Amino acid sequence: MLIHPIHRMARMIKTADVDKILQKHHNDKTALISILQDIQAKNRWLPQEILEYVSEKLKIPLIDVYSTVTFYKSFSLTPRGKHIVTVCLGTACHVRGSPKILDELKNQLDINVGETTPDENFTLQTVRCLGVCALGPLMTIDDEYYGQVTTKIIPSILKKYKKRVQESDS
Amino acid sequence: MLELSINGIDVQVEEGSTILDAARFLGIDIPTLCHVEGLTPYGACRLCVVEINKGEQARLVSSCTYPAEHGLQVWTHTRRVVEARKMLIELLLAMCPSSKTVQDLASAHNVQKVRFKVDYSDCILCGLCVRMCNEQMDARAIGFINRGKDRRITTPFDVKSDICRTCGACMYICPACELRCQGPHPPGDVCGGCLNVEPVCLEEEEQKMCFMDPCGWCYKETGRRKTEKEK
């Protein structure tokens, strides 16, 4: 797995925080998925060192932790941005021009699908169908839906989120 | 003790044994690939399918994982079962034609061609190496990752594992990564060489020259092995 050098600076959850999460689940092996979910909620992604730490603490073989993480799509082994940009590529959205939207987002963010911008603000991903075909082409950022997106309005949407990041940082 | 019938023959087996155990006890040959004594049954290759019950309730189950039940009716070689096994072998061949184990199975079950796109992978995902590492070597260094078509076997994070002692048990048990069996058409899909089980090298030599369990590709093309003079 290739991690962009800049992501090596990516923020990493402290082991003390992991201990807290483990205690919350009473160091229970069977709660592995919940534990990983809690870690990801705090850290946005699952770094290798943390998985090694979890496997050691729960006395689970590392390969079992690794296969669980790779089995579920919601777990990420690469750094994820503060905002997740999802473009619907379902049939209806495709017909209504979602590939163009995706290309525009790739250009604007300068990343490929599944990648994260070096400033860790955005992660771009695609989805097969979001079930709101009437609003296609559709994209979501975090939990907010944007229907009938055009390439023209993308910069303004992204700007809104960049501003939000700046506000929360300052 | 449980009493069940296999191909119409009544057999008594101990509680906790599987259909496969019962069939082997009777001497009925059920092909297996991912089943090895000493490792827990896994039911990955499905080659051991048998038909249970009759009529509308008949269904195929993998005998290596199905526990024997009292009064169960088992049929090990019905048309449905044999066809299912042939299809499975064909699929395995399409996945890994370089495996001698799979080629031998193909010969034994008269699978002559592969109708699927052949993908020369070196793994059939039988899970033998994972179970070997886990249960016999007590290492748990390798396992399955991803899912669906991306499922594969590897060490954590695809790097050399600290737990792995490089004992080689995984390679010993693997039916797919062994040396390729040299069929008459080396890169082909089905060699079929093993259909010819009588070693003809005995005609010219004092003893059998090839110890690749029934193979005989050496005379498949020319009818017999070329002598020194002909070369």
Biggest interface pair, counts: A-B, 12 and 14 residues
Overall strand count of chain B:
7
CATH class wording of the largest domain in chain A: Alpha Beta
> In the CATH hierarchy, what is the architecture of the domain at 128-177 in chain B at level 2?
2-Layer Sandwich
What's the level 1 CATH class of the domain at 128-177 in chain B?
Alpha Beta
- Tell me the span between the first and last alpha carbons of chain A: 33 Å
* N- and C-termini, Cα separation of chain B: 64 Å
Number of domains of chain A: 2
Helix and strand pattern of chain B:
EEHEEEHHHEEHH
Strand composition percent of chain B? 5-15%
**CATH superfamily annotation of the largest domain in chain A:** Glutaredoxin
Radius of gyration of chain A: 18 Å
What gross morphology of chain B would you assign? Answer: globular
* CATH architecture grouping of the largest domain in chain A: 3-Layer(aba) Sandwich
Order of SSEs of chain A, N→C? HHHHEHHEEEH
Polypeptide structure, described:
The complex is a heterodimer of chains A (170) and B (231). With 170 residues, chain A is α+β, with helices and mostly antiparallel strands. Chain A has two domains: 67 residues; 87 residues, Glutaredoxin, CATH 3.40.30. Chain A is elongated and about 50 Å long. Chain A starts with 14 loop residues before the first helix and ends with a helix. The model of chain A has no long low-confidence stretch (mean pLDDT 89). About 6% of the residues of chain B have low confidence. Chain B is globular, with a radius of gyration of 20 Å. In chain B, strand 6 and strand 7 form a beta hairpin. Chain B has a domain of 50 residues: 2-Layer Sandwich (Alpha-Beta Plaits), CATH 3.30.70.
